[in-house]
Amino acid sequence: MKSYSHSKWLRAKIRLAEPCLLEVSDHFWTHAQLAQMFPEFLFLMHSIIRSSVSLINAAAKSSQRRADLDLVCRKIAAYYQTHALEEMHHDDWLLEDMAAIGMERSEVLVRLPSSAVASLVGAQYYWALHVHPVALFGYLAVLEGRPPSLRQLSEIRTKNGLPAEGLRTMVKHARLDPHHRDEIYGQLDGLPLNRNLSELVALSAFHTIERISQALQEILDSHGNGRVFKGKGL
Predict the structure, then answer these.
(1) Domain extent at residue 189
(2) Residue 14 burial (CB < 10 Å; 0-12/13-18/19+)?
(3) What is the Cα 70 distance to its own chain's centre?
């Protein structure tokens, strides 16, 4: 019987679950009103990214607490610490982009994120602290797994007349995320995951796909653009 690596299994599961996200993303990025919706998209990105460092550090601390009795935690603690450093100040990059296109920094910081974002990030805290911190690999694999290419970003900017200053963080992530994605999958393949932990990583990825799809759909709905994503409870 052919054996598959943890990364191949996760990639396969993500491919099965992501059509809903790809559909709503395509609808968003090709929409005639994209320029009007783009500030909302930047706010969505910031709502997620502002939690990254504290979330990854929480997973690192949870891993360290369990490390003496858990080989998986012993292996992932250092990776989380390093990745948290790599993600530092990305929320500041976005704030600078948002300010450059006329959004007020003070208003962004006091505005309430959507419940979809709270559910997206909150579930990761729950799994990392109360189930197993390896769950975060599913979340990271989705968020950093398929960034728009530099060519795609250039085409989107040109077609919609978007200011280059508003896409600076996305351009940086187009360059950084492929490396981070490969690192995530490489780390995953070095872990002695049992079936339960493998399923937890996949569950985290599925939840991430669904909640991001929901958040994008909410932006479309707020501009009267109809419903593409039909997730649970929607």
Answers:
(1) 6-26+34-222
(2) buried
(3) 26
Q: What is the CATH number of the domain that holds 149?
A: 1.20.910.10
Asked whether residue 231 is assigned to any structural domain, the reply reads: no
pLDDT tens across the length of the chain (234 residues)? 356 899 999 999 999 999 999 999 999 999 999 999 999 999 999 999 999 999 999 999 999 999 999 999 999 999 999 999 999 999 999 999 999 999 999 999 999 999 999 999 999 999 999 999 999 999 999 999 888 899 999 999 999 999 999 999 999 999 988 889 999 999 999 999 999 999 999 999 999 999 999 999 999 998 875 554 445 433
Q: What's the predicted TM-score (pTM) here?
A: 0.91
Question: Sign of torsion, CA 43 45 48 54?
Answer: negative
CA distance 105 to 89: 15
